[in-house]
Amino acid sequence: MSQLRIEVTEASQPAAARRAAANLAHEAGMDETAASDLALVVTELATNLVKHASGGELLLRRLGAAGEEGVEVLSLDRGPGIGDVARALGDGYSTAGSPGTGLGAVLRTAAEFDLYSQPGKGTAIVARVVPRGTRSPTPYAQLVGVVQQPKPSETVCGDGWFVGWFADGWVCAVADGLGHGPLASAAAQSIIEAVRSAQGSRGPVELVQAAHEAARPTRGAAFGVAVLDGPAGVVRFAGVGNIAAQVLNGDERRHLVSYNGILGHEHRKVSEFAHPWRTQSVLVLHSDGIGTHWDANQYPGLLARDPSLMAGVLYRDHTRGRDDATVVVIKEKG
Q: Where is the PPM-type phosphatase domain (predicted)?
């Protein structure tokens, strides 16, 4: 599903954000109560950006395979940060002029909520809104965070991503179609559809080959895919082109290497790389619209937070601003 970006820098924009949320709720088939919950969450977070962060952005993403299981709202800013998070989440701490009671209202309304803030560097907040009484929007043993945005001035993102589960693990893939716009998007989506239909017990090298065949009629793409082998306790990766991949285990960082080439055209024989997967492990895959020189140690405690916060922070601080940008983060719950 595409992700809606709403820039929020001035007092008139929370109202526009609320209207955009109403449209998205209608597209997602939300009932009146859930739509009202989403409107409150978006309004509070947008107002918070204006009042306390001097601006930022909201990223809205429909959840579920068909986009009908709820909406995720990701708020990102480079403001002063929140010095006292507990106070900010209390009922007595309100964003002036907003209809609820600030972040406390967001916390109560959202089915899932998390926050990461650093003094002087900014704040990231994620809130997921689902129809009341329904199951969690993240029912699997892993949590997934995603940011996907087109190149500025483009309306279609030339990247694609996919996360799917099978009996003993999961598959996580990112494709970056050559160039930008609709033709790049078509290449990426052809690859992602091949992965979607080929998933199961297949290894990453097999998936790269399936993606290569799917990309032949297109302009080509970079592609990376990771597969969790649950019984073996390892994550296996293979890639072609500029897809970056890291496995983070506490203080340990492991870069997983992609081979040179263009999927759908020419590339050398691909081998897989394997790395242990533990309960605290985090996988990050991203396209080259995100710079590669980020260091998780610069964000103390972020690995323990919701993966959408990590995806959002990497996008906020390391997007190149001249290319399509996609970052996918997957980790175990708990």
A: 142-332
